[in-house]
Write a structure and sequence with these properties.
By secondary structure, the protein is an all-alpha fold. It is built from two helices and no strands.
C-alpha cells in the first residue's frame, strides 16, 4: 500500500489555496459589493489582483526553479 505523501501534501495545499481564493473573491468582494455597490466591488477586485500579483510572481519563480532542479536531476 504505497501512499505518496508528497503528492497528497501538494494536492492538499492546492485545495487550500483554491479555497482561500474562493473565500477572498466571493465573501470579500461580495461584501464590498453589498456595502459599496458595483463600483466599490470593481475597485476591490483591482486591489485584490494588485495584492496577489507579487505572490503570483514569487510562486511562478519558485515553480520555475523547481522545474529546473527536477529537469537537471532527471538528466
Amino acid at each position: 500500500m504505497g501512499h505518496d505523501l508528497r503528492k497528497y501534501a501538494r494536492e492538499t495545499n492546492i485545495r487550500l489555496f483554491i479555497g482561500f481564493l474562493l473565500i477572498l473573491f466571493i465573501v470579500g468582494d461580495g461584501l464590498i459589493f453589498v456595502i459599496y455597490g458595483a463600483g466599490g466591488a470593481l475597485m476591490g477586485l483591482v486591489c485584490i489582483f494588485a495584492g496577489l500579483a507579487p505572490l503570483a510572481l514569487i510562486a511562478l519563480a519558485l515553480w520555475g526553479i523547481d522545474w529546473l532542479v527536477r529537469k537537471d536531476h532527471d538528466e
